[in-house]
Structure formats: structure tokens, C-alpha cells
Amino acid sequence: MKKFLVTGGAGFIGSAVVRALLKRKDVHVVNVDALTYAGNLESIPEQLQAADNYQFEHINLVDQKAVENVLEQHRPDVVMHLAAESHVDRSIDGPSQFIQTNVVGTYNLLQASLNYWRDSSSGQFKFHHVSTDEVYGDLTDTGELFTESTAYDPSSPYSATKAASDHLVRAWGRTYGLPVLVTNCSNNYGPYHFPEKLIPHMILNALKGKQLPVYGDGSQIRDWLYVEDHAEALIQVAEKGVVGETYNIGGHNEKKNIDVVARICELLDEMVAEKPKGIKSFSDLITFVKDRPGHDVRYAIDASKIERELGWKPKETFESGIRKTVAWYLNNEKWWQRVLDGSYKLSRIGDAK
Fold first, then answer.
1. Going by C-beta distance under 8 Å and a sequence separation of 6 or more, which residues neighbour residue 221?
2. What is the distance between the alpha carbons of residues 154 and 136, in angstroms, rounded to a whole number?
3. What does the DSSP 8-state code read for residue 280?
4. Could you tell me the strand order of the sheet in which 254-256 lies?
5. Closest-CA residue to 265 (of 248, 243, 282, 289)
6. What stretches of 247-332 show up as alpha helix (H) in DSSP?
7. What is the DSSP code (8-state) at residue 114?
8. Is residue 347 over pLDDT 50?
9. Any catalytic annotation for residue 215?
10. Which is it for the CA torsion 12, 16, 17, 19, positive or negative?
11. Is 133 a catalytic residue?
12. Of the residues 33, 77, 85, 133, which is catalytic?
């Protein structure tokens, strides 16, 4: 039975990976998570957590000794590294935590993995580092796409720390021979998404009759990738990817932020029987706010390499995925209400009240 150690497995993308892996009977999953504000074990159904092939370890990657111990104890065949601080706004407000988790934490995991790999002499071990398209900076030419050879040009403290961690992973591969893989993905969305991110933020604000804050004029373009499609791609890379290679993962769904928000409003108008008082259409709540510093104009992924070499393609279009996402939030108030009752406040984005 192949053993996967997934860092950040209680987060948005990480929990999707854990859920996908646990559908199989031929793997064992060790979920390593610090359970900071965005980590939520309720994103993994109880029946999966109770499975014999699942274990959880409450560990922060900045604790080097704990990282070493968990590798030695569980002896994984694959490390899938998804743990990261990931919100651009938070990185602008407080970059220190991003440096600690994304850079120092990655270093600790790399070093512990290197020592474990050397001692175990396992020819099957792989270290799969999961990153973002934001490391590439932004695109202005509408026909241009990020490829695996695009030069790095990060704009925010978040993307700079992810770029740093990418470079560390490749250096440990080239210098020490550690069997590494790197993936860079476009914007994810779907079930269990923490409410500070654009799509869940808009859905939940709308349901409460609050403003829908859109940065600038909303013309920023992102390529949207349904999280369950991404999880399947990551598992394929971990199992079939060529060591030393990088794979870009995208959804082929370039959309302006304002168009995403408008489509959410249309779906809510269709699906919600009783709107908040005084609202004829949820689109009435759209409010443009001051743009954030260093806001990238456009991201777009060329995912032809992973499609060509590993046979992966996204199953969801943006239309099918966003409809599923809105429906999930409407049907899972218990999950997101518990998140909102915690330390996070929805008013953070754009300081909209």
C-alpha cells in the first residue's frame, strides 16, 4: 500500500487531495496540518477520517524536529507539499508569517525529506511541491500564456514566498538529487473554500445582503480551475510525473473578476427563493473598491504539457463548476457558518462593511 504524506491536508486544495486519495483502497494517507485559521478538518468527511488508511498529525512545519519525527514515524513513499499561507491581502498586511510558513517551513520539510530519503534508500520516494501561477507575475498580452519555462516575476509577498519555495525545491533536486516534482496551478474554486477568497466571499456576502466588494474596475483576469479537477491532476503528477519536471495545471477558463461576480449573482438570483430585504437582484450589491497594491492584471496557464504527457484534462467547465460551487454553499450552511463564527471576518476584503 503506497503511503502519501500530505501537508496542508486540512486546507482547501489539500483536503480535496485527501478526499480523492481516500476514495482508493490501495493508498494510506497521513494528513499533516498546523490547523491555523484556514485549516478545517471538517473539510474531510467523518467516515473518511475514521478509515483505517487515514491518519492525522497536528504539526507546524516551522517545527523542524516535529517534521523530522513525522517522516521517520510514517515513512511515506510520496510527500505532497501543499501547506502554505496563501492569501495575497494577508501577505500585504503581514508578510512575516508567509516567510515562516512558505519559506522556512518548506526548507524544514525538504531537509527532513532529504535525510529520510538518504537513510531509507527508497527508489520510489517523490517530493511533490504544489505551487501557484502567481510566481510568474502577470500577463498583459491577451494571447500570452504562462508555460513551465516562463521567467519568475512575483508581485506580492505571497507570490514571492511561493517563488522562493519553488527555487528551494528545485535546488534540493539539482544539488542533492532529491526526487522532486513541481506543479504551478491557476486559481482554484469549489466546495470547502475558505470564505476570504473571491468566490465564496461573494456568495456568502450576497446571502447576508452585504456589499460585494470588487477591486478596481474588476477587469483583472484569472484562469479558474475546479478544485476536484486540480486534486486529480496533482495525484497523477505524484504518481506518473517525471522526476525533476514542472507541470502547469490550468482550467482553460479565463474570466474577468467582474464577470465571475456577475455570474454568481445570476446563479443566486436563480437558486435563492428568498432574497435579503430590499434586494431585487444580487447584482445590486456589487460595489467597486480601491484596488489593492501590486494587483496583477492577468493570469493564464498553458496546461498542454500535463495534458500531453500525463493525459490529464479538467472535467469541469467554468459554467458547470461555478454552478456546483454555488449549490454547495447553499446546501452546506452548517460548514461555512462554523467558519464564520470563528476568528475570520468577511469585511476584510476591500474593507467593505
1. 254, 255, 256, 257, 297, 298, 299, 300
2. 6
3. S
4. 187-189, 221-226, 254-256
5. 282
6. 257-271, 304-310, 318-331
7. H
8. no
9. no
10. positive
11. yes
12. 133
Nearest to 238 by CA among 79, 94, 349, 100: 79
| Residue 338, amino acid | R
* Sheet containing 246-249, strands listed edge to edge, beginning at the edge strand earlier in sequence: 54-58, 27-33, 2-7, 78-81, 126-132, 180-185, 246-249
Residue partners of 279: CB distance under 8 A and separation at least 6: 209, 285
Candidates 33, 77, 85, 134; catalytic one: 134
**DSSP secondary structure string for all residues of 33-89:** E---TT--GGGS-HHHHTSTTEEEEE--TT-HHHHHHHHHHH--SEEEE------HH
Query: For this structure, is 46 an active site residue?
Result: no
Please give the model's pTM, rounded to 2 decimal places. 0.93
* pLDDT band at 351; cut points 50, 70, 90: very low
Cα–Cα distance between 173 and 236 in angstroms, integer?
20
Q: Which of 158, 189, 192, 226 is catalytic?
A: 158
Answer yes or no: are the C-beta atoms of 178 and 117 closer than 8 Å: yes
Reference 21, options 173, 131, 128; nearest CA is: 128
Q: Which residues of 334-349 are buried (b: 16+ CB within 10 A; e: fewer)?
A: eebeebeeeeeebebb
What are the φ and ψ backbone dihedral angles of 196, each rounded to 5 degrees?
Answer: -80, -15
79 pairs with which residues across the strands?
Answer: 5, 127
**How do residues 333-342 score in pLDDT, each as one tens digit?**
999 998 887 6
Where are the alpha helices (H) located in 121-187, listed in sequence order?
157-176
